[in-house]
Amino acid sequence: MKRLPENSKMLQILTLMLLMLGFGISSGVFSQTNKRIEEIRKIYQEVNKKVAECDENGDASSTFLTEIIVNKNNGAYPAVGIYTSVVKFYYTFGDREKDPYPNRLLKIMVTINRSARTETSEFLFDEKENLIFYFEKNEIEKRVYLADGKPIQILEGKKAIDLRSKAATELSRQIAKQQQRCLVVFQTIF
Fold it and tell me: Is residue 40 predicted with pLDDT exceeding 90?
């Protein structure tokens, strides 16, 4: 039986150590991502409680609602039929020492009705008004969790989408475009 040279054994040990280190780092990143997603889910639940309170008891709530309705009377659009778009901006007080008015955006909800089809999307913001979660429901539900403005997880239905894929890049671009349009409207209100 042929004996391996000493350098070869060292190379095998070094390779094994690097593989174990790589798995440790990737599992650390994975657990950080999961922790961030759990934080986002908690914020989502808290904001939804504020939204429900605002919808039920708007006059007593510290969360405010501005609603914009396009085609409120359901006039028929050529080649589309009935078309209605509703955008709801939920917001509250920010730094009251700097600005006494409620202008810190919590959530944007968009509902579009086209004849027999309904599309919904939601934008959730953190306390610094950074987008942290996006939800869309058309034929398929899409969920995008974000950190520092970049997706950390994208789900289509229950399937995770590779963040480096062309589909992920295009979805991120669409979200940014939609978000920007909504923010311009919200900022124009104040």
Answer: yes
Cα separation, 9 vs 45, whole angstroms: 54
- Angstrom distances, CA of residue 102 to CA of 78, 88, 90, 109, 146: 39, 15, 10, 18, 25
144 contact partners, CB below 8 Å, separation of at least 6: 133, 134, 135, 151, 153, 154, 155, 171, 172, 175
Rounded CA gap, 4 and 8, in Å?
A: 6
DSSP state of 64: E
Query: Which helix (H) or strand (E) is 107 found in, with range?
Result: strand 102-114
- In the structure encoding, which two tokens stand for residue 21, read together? 């280190």
pLDDT in tens, 118-153: 999 999 999 888 999 999 999 899 999 999 889 999
Q: Is 51 in contact with 146 (CB distance < 8 Å)?
A: no
Measure the CA–CA gap between 168 and 157, rounded to whole angstroms.
14
Residue (of 115, 23, 132, 35) closest to 75 by Cα position: 115
